[in-house]
Amino acid sequence: MNDLYPELEDYIYQYCQKFQTKDELMAGKTVLYNLKTQSETMLSMMRRKGWISDDPVILDMIADGRDALKSRIVKRIWNEHQHELSLNLCPACNKITRSPNASQCRFCFHDWH
């Protein structure tokens, strides 16, 4: 199996969310919305609706930023589930595609349409 590389990490984080824990999913949403939303009114409404969290566990998970959170999540998923992941790999070079439905390689440009 492939070793982790940036494009594979991005793919796992984006397309293998079923392997994330509830806390990891909430931490991901919380850090994303906190980066995009400046309005305290909007953030307060998101907390009330349960879209983001101010739970100390979640805040601790995101304390060192989105990239560190993503890296930890991907490494855990890889270590625990790498043989269960449905990865769309290029049949020519065995690298990850851009999405689960892609049929052209971003690395070697092999096309299997």
Q: What is the count of helical runs?
A: 5
Kindly state the number of beta strands.
0
Write down the secondary-structure element order. Answer: HHHHH
Average pLDDT reading: 94
Radius of gyration: 17 Å
Give the biggest beta sheet: none
- Poorly predicted runs are none
- End-to-end separation: 24 Å
- As a percent range, the share of strand residues is under 5%
User: Shape from CA axes?
Assistant: elongated
* Helix residue percentage: 40-55%
- The helix-and-strand class reads mainly alpha
Keywords:
mainly alpha; 5 helices; elongated
Describe the structure.
By secondary structure, this protein is mostly helical. The chain has a domain at 17-81. The chain has five helices and no strands. The chain has helices at residues 6-15, 22-36, 40-49, 56-61, 66-81. Helix 1 (6-15) packs across helix 5.
Task: Provide a short characterization of the protein structure.
By secondary structure, the chain is an all-alpha fold. It has 5 helices and no strands. It has helices at 6-15, 22-36, 40-49, 56-61, 66-81.
Chart the SSEs and their pairings.
Blueprint: H1 6-15, H2 22-36, H3 40-49, H4 56-61, H5 66-81
Helix pairs in contact: 1-5, 2-5
